[in-house]
Design brief:
single chain, 89 residues, alpha+beta, Hypothetical Cytosolic Protein, Chain: A, 3 helices, YlxR_dom, YlxR family protein, YlxR-like_sf, YlxR
Length: 89
């Protein structure tokens, strides 16, 4: 009898949907105020999740959802990294 493992769910800061952590990308802010993309989802710091979708990432940039979530101005390079991550570059 194998026990079903619980799938970790996280909320996308743009769509507000609870989805499997694997279908999201994590953006992290460290105590030092550094912001970076965390593809592993395991780095230390305050995390915010965005759906792996270019349109959603662009919406996040326009609405400044990540800025509010992480309490810091997220540089546009981060959004470019997110888009590159989604497009598999």
């Amino acid at each position: 009898m194998s026990k079903q493992r619980k799938v970790p769910l996280r909320k996308c800061v743009v769509t507000q949907e609870m989805v499997a952590k694997k279908s999201l990308i994590r953006v992290v802010k460290t105590k030092e105020g550094e912001v970076f993309v965390d593809p592993t989802g395991k780095k230390n710091g305050r995390g915010a999740y965005v759906t792996r979708d270019v349109d959603v990432i662009k919406k996040a940039e326009l609405s400044r959802a990540l800025d509010r979530q992480l309490d810091i101005a997220v540089p546009s390079e981060i959004y470019q990294q997110l888009i590159a991550e989604v497009e598999g570059k």
